[in-house]
Amino acid sequence: MARIIEPTKEGIEEAVRILDSGGLVAFPTETVYGLGADAFNPAAVMKVYEVKKRPRTSALILHISGLDMFEGCVRDPPEEAYLLIKWFWPGPLTLVLRKDERVPGAVSAGKDTVGIRWPAHPVAEAIIAGLGRPVVAPSANRSGRPSPTTAKHVVDDLGDLIDAVVDGGETPYGIESTVLDLTTDPPRILRPGAIPREKIEEVLGKEVLDAYVTKPGGVARYRIRKKLVMVDACGAPEHELPEKVMESVNLLDAKSPILLVSDETATAYSFSGAKVLVIGSRRNPLDVAKKLFKVLRVAEVLPGDVIIVEPLPSEGGLWAAINHRIREASSKVVRVC
Ligand code: TXA
Ligand code: MG
Questions:
Q1: The dihedral of CA 109, 115, 118, 121: what is its sign?
Q2: Contact of 297 with 152, CB cutoff 8 Å
Q3: DSSP conformation letters of 117-149
């Protein structure tokens, strides 16, 4: 069973020792918990793929803690990379750039590019700086499961398979970094995340493309232990949402639905007889991002036949990433227009 390590000076030293000898240590970042391995130890990197059951074709993100480390990993980064780094690092923006040949091929699944970021979390930074080398850190879940935002989530998914988890409490953002491909012009967002596209466009002074594929309907990419259904209410105003959600319960003929709803509408469901979980405020996407994965992990083990998610605001900003993650977990959309 994975050792739980406190984020003290001694704890960090212990985590660094494990990584240095080729072990796997999960640790908190500002987004979600990452499963760390020494990026320059190909055997350790391959173990990451194994324990996560991650497809070998899916590249890992290099986590660094300084610009000298950055420069040792990439080849000819464009000026735009430095502009974004100045604004957003340390922070939840992953840049995809040409890879330096010194970075082992195992890190980037054989691609000639590498995803790289400098996390803004004192525990992550101390571990990377302590090791003195970049650390690969995919989200510390089994492939396809929601990303972990607490040490307990990590233990639930991978406890038997990894050496240790540094318990730094809940992660502040709760949603993964934005992955931005800077090897094309215009740059392309490969995964929407904690830094919204609009902010990147503002800094670069130009358009950035959304290049993530929306999964085909009916195929859930996240493996939640229950069926998850989204409701399309065609932009109905907030006060009509409870009625629309209850209409979808009827259409689905759901006997014991679990409803994920917002702070603002929660009381309107109190007479519905359904199990209701609140995922945060419609006025505060940061709040929803922080709670989303945690609430999904609560909902999937409650008694009930289906999880139904109230429509959230569809405007840009962080809602793009939140709605993307919900879509990835869903296997059906019910239209109640
Ligand atoms: O917030 C985060 O990014 C978290 C924390 C732990 O840092 N990490 C994370 O890693 O979410 P992971 O492996 O679960 O997701 C990384 C994503 C994948 O979708 C992968 O395909 C993409 O980044 N990616 C990584 N390197 C890439 C590359 N060279 N080219 C294209 N996509 C890349
Ligand atoms: Mg992941």
A1: negative
A2: no
A3: E----HHHHHHHHHHTS-EE--BSS-TTSPPPS
Integer Cα distance of 151 and 271 in angstroms: 36
Classified as helix, coil or strand, 330 is coil
Q: What is the pLDDT of residues 15-53, one digit of tens each?
A: 999 999 999 999 999 999 999 999 999 999 999 999 999
Q: Is the four-CA dihedral 235, 299, 2, 11 of positive or negative sign?
A: positive
User: Please, are residues 31 and 177 in contact by the beta-carbon 8 Å criterion?
Assistant: yes
Q: List pocket residues of ligand 1, CB cut-off 6 Å.
A: 29, 31-32, 34, 58-61, 92, 94, 96, 108, 111, 113-115, 119, 137-139, 176-177, 179, 190-191
Which of 176, 181, 212 is the pocket-test mutation for ligand 1 (most atoms within 8 Å of CB)? Answer: 176
How far apart CA 48 and CA 27 sit, in angstroms, is 14
CB 37 within 8 A of CB 45: yes
Q: If you take atom 29 of ligand 1, which residue's CA is the nearest one?
A: 114
The ligand placed nearest to the CA atom of residue 137 is 1
Ligand 1: nearest atom to the Cα of 35: 6
pTM above 0.90, yes or no: yes
Q: What is the CA radius of gyration of the chain?
A: 20
38 vs 152: CA distance, rounded Å: 23
Q: Residue 135: name the closest of 175, 166, 111, 157 by CA.
A: 166
How open is the CA angle 220-226-231, to the nearest 5 degrees? 65
Tokens of 335: 């239209």
